[in-house]
Design brief:
Layout: E1 2-5, E2 11-14, H1 21-31, E3 36-41, H2 43-56, E4 61-66, H3 72-77, H4 84-93, E5 96-104, E6 107-109, E7 112-116, H5 117-125, H6 133-147, E8 151-157, E9 160-173, E10 195-201, H7 205-217, E11 226-231, E12 233-238, E13 243-246, E14 249-252, E15 257-270
Parallel strand pairs: 3-4, 4-15
Antiparallel strand pairs: 1-2, 1-3, 5-6, 5-15, 7-9, 7-13, 8-9, 8-12, 9-10, 10-11, 12-15, 13-14
Helix pairs in contact: 1-2, 5-6
Length: about 270
């Protein structure tokens, strides 16, 4: 669901008809003069609407009303979940905050881009029809924890090579939280012009379980197989074009070499007043 507020206080709303339709609605609203776009949904919805705003070149602002599965960006920005009235007050107050966005290929992301294990979980969920919601993702996460083989990737951050490594997962974070509540990048600041890349080295099943328990508690960065890199630009070289996710949306890369970069303070988001 998408709502628009124009400077004249005119209000309209639109309903998406299918996946990705929110970008079309946002583009149409911007073309008709609306400059505040309020999106009801989750990280994928917000990312698609933000992409439409950025591609338009217009200084429109994005309002967030959590209504999806994870809604992780809202947690970083202090926007309350399950409180529509409070979200409406934030929108009406009109306090904007400029945040960075991440860019990979021609796609923008607000929260995270992910490679490896988390993408395998997403792909595995397509084959399971007898579960839904959080039970589906927990089941697939446990199944892939055992069966995912890992991936070879060479990483370069701001021209500094880190060599090729066998990884379980690579998360490039603009904000602090992903997966519905995991504090993947506790030091991330969505307005510092940088991204936090968190690389999990490949390991056996027992060690994987241990590092995931650390991730639940926010203590994974102290694990010897986990490395965090703060960077404005990351180059990843894979053996073949990988699949990856941006804010929960599945994508197939066009090339085996992928550049991920921060676009500083590119988007204005309506947030609680200081």
């Amino acid at each position: 669901m998408l709502q628009h507020l124009a400077p004249s206080e005119k209000l309209e709303h639109g309903l998406t008809q299918g996946p990705g339709d929110e970008a079309r609605l946002a583009s149409e609203a911007i073309a008709r003069g609306f400059r505040n776009i309020v999106a009801v949904g989750g990280d994928g919805t917000w990312s698609n609407v933000a992409g439409a705003i950025l591609k338009s070149g217009v200084a429109a602002r994005l309002g967030l009303v959590p209504g999806g599965t994870g809604c992780d960006l809202a947690k970083t920005l202090g926007i309350p979940a399950r409180d529509v009235a409070a979200c409406c007050r934030i929108v009406l107050a009109g306090h904007g905050r400029s945040i960075d966005v991440g860019k990979v290929e021609d796609r923008y992301f607000l929260n995270i881009a992910g490679f490896g294990y988390d993408v395998a979980v997403l792909e595995d969920s397509w084959s399971v029809s007898y579960l839904e919601g959080s039970a589906l993702y927990l089941y697939c996460a446990l199944r892939q924890l055992r069966s995912f083989r890992g991936m070879a990737v060479a990483v370069e951050a701001e021209g500094r090579p880190f060599g090729e490594r066998e990884l379980l997962m690579l998360i490039v974070a603009n904000a602090r939280i992903f997966g519905g509540g995991f504090r993947i990048a506790p030091h991330a600041d969505p307005a510092d012009g940088r991204l936090e890349a968190v690389a999990f080295g490949n390991m056996g099943l027992g060690a994987r379980l241990g590092v995931m328990l650390r991730l639940l508690r926010g203590r994974h960065l102290a694990h010897p197989k986990v490395q965090a890199i703060s960077t404005s630009r990351l180059v990843c070289r894979f053996a073949a074009p990988p699949s990856y996710e941006t804010d929960g949306e599945w994508n197939r890369a066009r090339s085996a070499e992928i550049v991920i970069e921060a676009v500083p303070r590119a988007l204005s988001v309506l947030v609680p007043s200081p």
